[in-house]
Write a structure and sequence with these properties.
The chain is an alpha+beta fold. About 50% of the residues lie in helices and about 10% in strands.
């Protein structure tokens, strides 16, 4: 059909045409409308400066008015005459607009994160800390954007170490986009340094307060909380089975009702970081030699080979019971979520429940079990090098943060040497 395109004529065309029919404008060459599945669309067809005919979509009618469509075409005609290929320009802009960090995270990088044991945590940190930046096309992100982001994070009170960690996650995603090709030519943040401030004395004081340990009473409360948790879960299970959910497994005859007691005991006996316990796999445990051989999450970017640490008899005993309870698997995560067979996200909720059941101080964190392990070893006179190896950290870190628990350490060493 050929006729001048107007609002009135297009309304008639919609009512009287079939899917795929075309309406050509008699006033502007190449301007036409088509009746498609999702409505009536306006197009412009032109001779490309690089050769051949090309068609570009102007928009859907009546969202795009005839007047605006003609103005667009008038602008395009001038740019085409100047040698610009409008179709290529529009396609490039569309790709740039769609090539946001958020889209890349959802469509490509998410699969990469799924390969990582702590991928869920990384994804959450990216979403929580980089909201506005994720909506920008990746190639338009500048070092100035990151500087502004850093300033805001510091003003919000976020600890410098956390800022450094989450920035590393964001930078790693950009590097991945460069590595796979076809997304980014280069990382726009390459060579950028955060230049983080040092922790204030007050922040260091707060951190020292968090590095506390369980006294005798609190230790008893912790173990009582574990038993109360088990009892609570068993009671809930019995009630559910008695009220129409008989299909649920009976928890009365098994040692551990779920992963909470065994993983908390494991952390208590080993002092490992919660993330390492959550991502521990069965083939990393040697029951015969009573040891764990694992690549530590915190240092794996620097030290890729695994670390071997001994496990106490009590620790091996609980792991054997948990292993047998799960039909002695050879592979897979030790403390896997039964719904996903992947590690749990964190231990915040179960720890909070244990604090409540054991009537423990609310300021205690799950990380307290690590501090407790290290602190008691130090206070019992353990060698700092041995403690550092057991805690999978450095002697400097142990001495800096826990050395005050052995104030006479150096004097004792030199006296013991002289006496020998």
């Amino acid at each position: 059909m050929k006729k001048k395109i107007t609002k009135t004529e297009l309304k008639k065309f919609i009512n009287n045409s079939k899917y795929g029919d075309r309406y050509n404008d008699t006033e502007q060459k190449g301007f036409h409308a088509r009746n498609l599945k999702n409505g009536l669309y306006l197009y412009y067809r032109y001779e490309s400066p690089t050769g051949g005919r090309k068609t570009i979509s102007l928009g859907r009618f009546p969202d795009l008015t005839i007047e605006k469509a003609r103005k667009l075409i008038f602008e395009y005609v001038g740019r085409i005459a100047a040698g610009e290929d409008i179709s290529t320009t529009i396609q490039t802009r569309r790709q740039v607009k769609e090539n946001t960090a958020l889209n890349y995270l959802k469509e490509i990088y998410d699969a990469e994160l799924n390969k990582k044991a702590d991928g869920k945590n990384i994804r959450a940190d990216l979403s929580n800390h980089f909201g506005p930046l994720l909506t920008k096309p990746m190639q338009t992100i500048t070092k100035r954007h990151i500087k502004i982001w850093q300033t805001k994070k510091e003003a919000s009170g976020l600890h410098p170490k956390t800022i450094k960690k989450v920035f590393a996650y964001f930078n790693a995603m950009l590097n991945h986009a460069v590595k796979i090709g076809g997304v980014l030519d280069s990382n726009p943040l390459s060579g950028y340094s955060l230049n983080l401030r040092k922790s204030t004395p007050e922040e260091e004081r707060v951190l020292r307060q968090k590095r506390t340990y369980l006294d005798k009473t609190q230790t008893e409360q912790f173990f009582r909380a574990l038993d109360l948790y088990q009892q609570l879960k068993r009671t809930q299970n019995q009630n559910s089975r008695a009220h129409g959910k008989s299909f649920l497994n009976d928890l009365s005859g098994i040692e551990y009702v779920d992963y909470v007691k065994p993983i908390m005991l494991f952390l208590y006996y080993t002092g490992l970081r919660p993330g390492d316990a959550l991502t521990m796999q069965w083939d990393e445990i040697n029951f015969s030699f009573k040891s764990l051989t694992k690549v530590i999450n915190k240092t794996k970017h620097k030290k890729e080979h695994p670390t071997t640490i001994p496990l106490s008899d009590e620790c091996i005993k609980l792991l054997l019971t948990w292993h047998k309870q799960h039909k002695s698997p050879k592979h897979g995560y030790v403390f896997a979520n039964p719904k996903t067979n992947k590690p749990y996200y964190n231990l915040y909720k179960p720890w909070k429940k244990l604090i409540e059941l054991g009537e423990l101080p609310k300021e205690l964190e799950n990380y307290t079990l690590r501090h407790n392990f290290i602190s008691h070893l130090i206070m019992n006179g353990a060698n700092l090098l041995s403690v550092a190896k057991l805690a999978t950290t450095s002697v400097d870190m142990i001495e800096k943060h826990y050395g005050h628990l052995q104030p006479d350490l150096q004097n004792r060493f030199i006296n013991e040497f002289a006496q020998r």
